[in-house]
Amino acid sequence: MKKIKRAPGEIRAQIAAMPIRRLADGSMEILLVTSRTTHRWIVPKGWPIKGLTAPEAAAREAFEEAGVVGRIVPEPAGSYIYWKRMSDHFALCEVTLYLLEVERQLPSWAEQGQRQVQWFQPDDAADLVDEPELATAIRNLTGVLVS
């Protein structure tokens, strides 16, 4: 695999899914997963995938990392920037966020043994993530979805 040379400080693009579900009482929950290396709470995310659109790639990440499938909203629902820990440095990443309306969660999936997966009330999810811009995106999305 050919290694791509990147300029120092170049912002790298990632995609993410924000999996949501509605409960019988009309309230909503957001699914968070833990990162593999630092074990912090995040949304399923990754690098763009050749041959897939950005929303399709976000849905694939949610399937692989959390075992959820559903309807991905094709328009971006927000974005956030964070520092990703790489093997020998940190990379600044801008993550485009896509809403995934979860229809089912599988009993087993690819990264099941590598991450924790848990549903949270939106305010709790926003409080648990480390990235301030992701917390803001969660709060902004829930305000739009509730109305």
Automatic annotation (TrEMBL):
The keyword Transcription does not apply. PROSITE patterns: NUDIX (PS51462). It comes from the Bacteria. Its cofactor is Mg(2+). The keyword Metal-binding applies. GO terms for cellular component: cytoplasm. Keywords: Hydrolase, Magnesium, Metal-binding. GO terms for molecular function: metal ion binding; pyrophosphatase activity. Residues 10-142 form the Nudix hydrolase domain. PANTHER family: DIPHOSPHOINOSITOL POLYPHOSPHATE PHOSPHOHYDROLASE, DIPHOSPHOINOSITOL-POLYPHOSPHATE DIPHOSPHATASE. This is Nudix hydrolase domain-containing protein. It comes from Bosea vaviloviae. The lineage of its organism: Bacteria, Pseudomonadati, Pseudomonadota, Alphaproteobacteria, Hyphomicrobiales.
